[in-house]
Amino acid sequence: MANIDLRPWREERREARQKQFILILMLVAICAGAAGFSWNQAVQAQVDYQVTRNTYLDTKNKELDGKIKEIEGLRQQREALVERMNVIQSLQGDRQIIVHIFEELVAATPDGVYFNSLSRKGSLLEIKGFADKKLAISDFLRNLDRSEWFSNTFLQDVEAIKEGNDVVGNNFSLKVNVTNPLRPKEDA
């Protein structure tokens, strides 16, 4: 008689293969989950590291911004000090000029000329005065023109003072520029 196997071996084999497939599927799912979890942890660690670096850079940038503002403040203070030093130097250098101006005015003033007011605005000197003769005013203008401390003398006004029919004097007003011959000339 022939051997006939009546057992359901095909179903057993199918069940064994199905169990094996499910086992392999679970192992693959576990490996994929573990790989995904480890990848997520690695990415999260890199993100945390980068966030830490960014916060460090932000704090250092804020410190540097503070230092930059401090440096700008120091630069402004330095510029203010340099300006003050320049003003002080120019004042000390120009201090002797007023003495020279008065000496030149005394030397240029002829007899019979008297000053009523003397004012200076920048380099412009305005003189108002009294002269007993018109010739004295002319001499005064010529003397100012000859001086190296004055230039551009301009007579603004001459008014005769009369008592009756006689002229007793003249009021005059003039402007003259003050120059400094001691200052070195700038090359143009």
Walkthrough of the structure:
There is one protein chain. A four-stranded antiparallel β-sheet has the order 1-2-4-3, with helices on one face. Helix 2 (97-108) packs across helix 3. The radius of gyration is 52 Å and the shape is rod-shaped. The chain is an alpha+beta fold and 188 residues long. It has three helices and four strands, in the order ααββαββ. The mean pLDDT is 88. The protein has helices at 9-94, 97-108, 134-146, and strands at residues 113-121, 124-131, 150-163, 166-178. It has a domain at 97-178: General secretion pathway protein M, EpsM (Gyrase A, domain 2, 2-Layer Sandwich). Strand 3 and strand 4 form a beta hairpin.
- CATH topology group of the domain at 97-178: Gyrase A, domain 2
Please state the average pLDDT score. 88
User: What spatial form do the alpha-carbon principal axes imply?
Assistant: rod-shaped
**CATH top level label of the domain at 97-178:** Alpha Beta
